[in-house]
Sequence to fold (507 residues):
Amino acid sequence: MKLIFASFFLLLTALNVFAQSERGNIAGLLTDPSGAAVAGAPISIVQTSTNAMTRTITTASGEYNAPNLLPGIYRIEVSAPGFKHFVQQNVNVTAGGTVRIDAALQLGQLTESVEVTTTAATIQTENAKVTTTVQNKMVDQLPLVVGGAMRSPFNLVAVAAEARGDGQRLSVGGGQAAQWDATLDGHSVGTNRSGDTAEAALNTPSVESLTEFAVDTNGFKAEYGQAGGGVMTFASKSGTNQFHGSAYDFLRNDAMDARNFFAAKRSVYRQNDYGFTAAGPVVIPHLYNGRDKTFFFVSYEGFRNRVGANDTILSVPTPEMYSGDFSKWVDQNNKLITVYNPNTTRASGSASIRDPYPGNIIPSSQFSATATAIAAFGKVATPNRGFAPGTSGYVRNNYLVSGGTQITPTDKISVKGDQIIGSRQRASILWNTTTFRNKPGPAGAPGLPEPLWNGQIQAWDTEAFRLAHDFTVTPNMVNHVSFARNTFTKNSFSANVDKNWSSKVCI
Fold:
């Protein structure tokens, strides 16, 4: 417990040490009509969706910088004595980005106003890093294929020119696969497991809960210590003064698919990726009005599927083999494979020899208890490809899988709250949890029946927690404190250990 408090104290006191963050900033220069710097000018920067305000002033050289801004659209207002009131609309602050807004103030009265309504340019000029930003509109509208798993925000990274590989084995900025880092609201979501994006995606909220993300590939600072090739910065959505919601379902079903050319029937392939979001100000009628102060964002995404293994060809014992009769067991040249009795092993010169079983038949008295128990399950799968006894096809590649499914149900829940405390403080909290399962479907496993199924059962549970507090100490000093926790529990085991098979098959 003492270590926790000590670490927290160091975090509070290290005001000049900045961690990796999804926050952006607005910087620029104020001048008068002659080009001279305007010093001491008060500047207000307002997030248009929540009316949250950040105040700063220009330095003696006329420069200003407003750091620690959440991604979003802002309005800049300058009210300097002797000059007209200046307003710059539509300033888009991206995740981890810097926007430069220079302004030439015009002489006049504060009651007069100069308003710039065009979208401000967002060319990165304050540092040398190479950034690809995917903004909220693209995150919401870019299509993602639902192919065997829940949609992953890492699949959107493919829009960055510096990204290579598929969604699971990803490389960025010319680096090797796995030499990247990914953050959510300023803290890593990686699992340190060979850069597997499928696992990291479980630590992130639903795609519907991300407002935007940025991919930095070159020139980023040493704060991104784990990123050899690049870093992906995800920013979670917050509620606004407007109530918003959505509901969706991405459907794939074999009823709408064509049959494979070589298959006797269509394979089972059914998927649903569905969910909803709800966001807005916290309003309790007659008790509390949270507009401009308290906001929430909630999302749920679920994934359900059934995938069959139709057309898979396996080798299974023939019916007579279960009684010990291997008289029809032949090789690829249709030549009998002799079965020898291990109980007759004896020395013959420098070698050992055994006697073959008469008729290639093993007596049931020599069957082990384990083999007898397992055989009871295997009898369900019998050769079905129509090859004649005594031929190679009768005993090899003789079973066409025609039933069973595998399912991977996944559920993801995210809850975020934001509180504006006066004009100088803001706090936020985010909680995200994901449960993932991989197991046979209700009709049994795709292939051999359990416990002979060669698949794997998986149970993964993750939880991501973020807490942040921002305090504007003075117009030129901002303190940002954040805390994060990721938990990732992964259980993977073979199919024969979760249903007490040891008491049924003797192993």
